Amino acid sequence: MPQRMPERKLGAASAPDDPWVTPGFFLPAISLAILVCFSPLLKYFFAQDDFILLLRAYSDGPGTFFDYFSASAGQFRPLTKVLYFGVMHSAFGLSAIAFHIVAFSLHMFNMVLMYHLFRRFAVGKVASITAAAFFGLNVSYFHVLAWISCIQQILGMSFMMVALITGIDSLRGGSRWARRVSILAYILALMSMEQTYFVPIVLVLFAVFGMDDGARLPFSRAIRKFAGQIIVFVAYTAFIVLWKTLPDEGVYTFSVGKNIFRNISQYSGWVYEFAPILSTTMSYTHFAAKMSHVLFLLLLAYHVLLGHYRQIVFGVVFLIAGMLPVLFLSHHTFYLHLYIPAFGALYLLALVLDDIVRRIPVFGTRHLQFVITVVLIAVMSVLSYVKVRENETAPMRAYSAFLGSFVLRRALIAAKMMDDLRERELNPEGVKRVFLVYGRKSGRDEAQWNNRNVIEAIGKGAAVRLFYEDPELDVQFKIAGDALRPEEMIGSRIFFFSDFGRLYAYSDTLRIDPPPTTGP
User: What is the helix (H) or strand (E) element at residue 477, kind and residue range?
Assistant: First the structure.
């Protein structure tokens, strides 16, 4: 059994933990609040990359798992981009709600794991529960739960947290089982999301800094304690950098320049946002001071004044190391990338809350901690509930009917197109080619954007290939007025689509009665 973590003693221990503040009550309550607050997202269909991954799982099966080990630049996420979608598609087909339920369950699980990780860092119960609620109910992770493809962040964090918790338990308790679980969980985390690479760094810092206020280990001994995780880290780094190589095109292209400082300023301006109105697209902005920046600086100043230097180093290293893979990107600044490194920022916040509780004698009043914890979680739940629904319905512009969230906008478009396709295509067998024709020919930027918006919504045609159960189906996108050759019409289907994804067969467009037929 792992040894009990000693209590952190940054402040005067004048207010011991209230016996009513128990994880057995609060963690299920927070989980229920998460489900209630984010429940509207359960009804949304697949969108964009979801269809591409589903089609790959349907057509290639588990074979594509090994494609990720090839010497080709790009991401290494075989667990979340191949195996997960393969298993889920085999079990549930195109039932999007099943995918959402798994994502919600894992998110709640991550919230519970975060609480337990705080406790292993000797943070008190009130602060640990409140910080875990801040993570679980945070509207900044709206798209992580709304977009099915973001299982990579959610599942990656699950494995990362298990690797950290069992790694710490093996350090203090000496359990070989915990050490092996930590190494295995770390490997699975790396196969889910590259942002989890820094697990050994965190474990070594934990041991060297004595983050649970236990005995500190010399650096050399800490290295030996976590030799297994470090070997995996070195092998993974060599594999990515030397074999696969870093992405050299697309939105994930690495760039070294002012983009790094811009990304740091952007993410630090989001890290303590709890209920934002999310931007319509991935952001690419210049620095602008936000309340999150102010709170970040105030927290750092508080810890500096009290001499909590190792806590500052640990929290900042956790946050920056988790963001490091995305800090080099030029055009891909997005809230969802804060999901995995969130613990570092919340650790600094939890320490301040814990220190205040222990320094102010009034918090020792019987059951006052319980009341304060209930009130804080209730306020967060109400705010989260309101802001989720505001983000769910917010339009892009005051005069636009398009939803501001590109994930939900494209999920609705894809659902409409698939429903209309099922209604109009009564005999899908033998189809060789499908033409999807945009219903208006225009050079205007908005019309072109609407066209691309719909195309991206259905995974550039992957959704149509899934419907026809033909991975090789020729799906072509046209603009109204484009000429089609007679030979292209053989075995083809032609559908027109609107800005909002409504699909029409050619017969739907006929508004003039045909002339009466006459006899010979």
Answer: strand 474-479
493 phi and psi angles, rounded to 5 deg: -120, 140
Q: What is the pLDDT of residues 78-93, one digit of tens each?
A: 999 989 998 999 899 8
Integer Cα distance of 33 and 31 in angstroms? 5
Q: Higher confidence at residue 45 or residue 505? A: 45
Residue 135 pLDDT exceeds 60: yes
Of 151, 161, 207, which is closest to residue 186 (Cα–Cα)?
A: 161
pLDDT tens, 144-200? 999 999 999 999 999 999 999 999 999 887 778 999 999 999 999 999 999 999 999
Q: What is the distance, to the nearest Å, from the Cα of residue 101 to the centroid of all Cα atoms in its chain?
A: 15
Helix (H, G, I), strand (E, B) or coil at 240: helix
User: 443 vs 35, 457, 507, CA distance in Å?
Assistant: 44, 21, 26
More confident residue, 443 or 477: 477
Task: Region of 181 please: left (phi>0), alpha (psi -120 to 50) or beta.
Answer: alpha
Residue 42: both structure tokens together:
């359960």
Contact indicator for 442, 31 with CB cutoff of 8 Å:
no
Identify whether the C-beta of residue 114 lies closer than 8 Å to the C-beta of residue 349: no
Is residue 229 within a helix (H) or strand (E), and if so which, with residue range? helix 227-238
> Closest Cα to residue 378, out of 21, 37, 22, 18?
37
* Count of CB atoms situated within 10 Å of the CB of 73: 15
What per-residue confidence (pLDDT) applies to 71? 62
Q: What would the two tokens of residue 454 be?
A: 């719909």
User: In Å, how far are 14, 115, 235, 457, 470 from 120, measured between CA atoms?
Assistant: 21, 9, 28, 43, 51
Kindly list the strands in the beta sheet with 503-505, ordered across the sheet, starting from the edge strand earlier in the chain. Answer: 474-479, 433-438, 492-497, 503-505
In 386-455, the DSSP E strands lie at: 433-438
Round to the nearest angstrom and report the end-to-end CA distance of the chain.
95
Which residue type occupies 175?
S
pLDDT at 212 over 90: no
